[in-house]
Amino acid sequence: MKKLLGIILGLLLLTACQETLEQRCAREAKEYSQKNCPAPVGKDVTIDSLTFDMATHTLTYSYTVSGLIDDTTVINNNNPREQLLKSLKNATSMKPYRDAGYRFRYVYFSTKNKGTKLYEATFLEKDYQ
Fold first, then answer.
1. CA-wise closest residue to 108 among 74, 29, 55
2. Quick one: pLDDT band at residue 4, thresholds 50, 70, 90?
3. Can you list the pairs that 30-35 forms with residues at least 24 positions away whose Cβ atoms lie under 8 Å?
4. Residue 55: what are its φ and ψ, rounded to 5°?
5. C-alpha radius of gyration, the chain, whole number
6. How far is CA 57 from CA 48, 53, 61, 100, in A?
7. Whether pLDDT at 3 is above 90
8. What is the mean pLDDT of residues 26-42?
9. In this structure, are residues 80 and 88 in contact, taking their beta carbons and an 8 Å threshold?
10. What is the DSSP string of 64-124?
11. CA distances for 93 relative to 10, 36, 88, 111, 118, angstroms
12. 124, 81 in Cβ contact below 8 A?
């Protein structure tokens, strides 16, 4: 009887320690930013941070661009929304978050004009399903 009670108590403790998808997402975003940011992700593009807003279930990727693409006209002429959506749909690591209906927000800032937002896109579940 004591053995059975110990097993049940142990199982309850194990299930109580499981983090929710929201908690996991927030933790992973914070860890990624602390360990990897800022980091170059391509020519003239640097990721500055990855954050998660639990209230809105929004993952936000913040980037800084430099060089030739540090210009709203250049960015907008390259169909950024279409390219970002395609990448989001193809990212297998984002599947649990897509399945949960999370929002994905991408913000690009200028290097030459600090603080100037060059482009922003937010994708809702209806966009990527």
1. 74
2. very low
3. none
4. -65, -40
5. 19
6. 20, 6, 13, 9
7. no
8. 96
9. no
10. EE-GGG-SHHHHHTT-HHHHHHHHHHH-GGGHHHHHTT-EEEEEEEESTTTT-EEEEEEE-
11. 31, 17, 9, 29, 27
12. no
Residue 38 corresponds to which amino acid?
P
Structure token digits, residue 93 = 């690591």
Alpha carbons 65 and 45: distance in angstroms, whole number: 5
Residue 10, pLDDT > 60, answer no
Does the pTM surpass 0.90? The reply is no
Other Cβ atoms closer than 10 A to 43 = 10
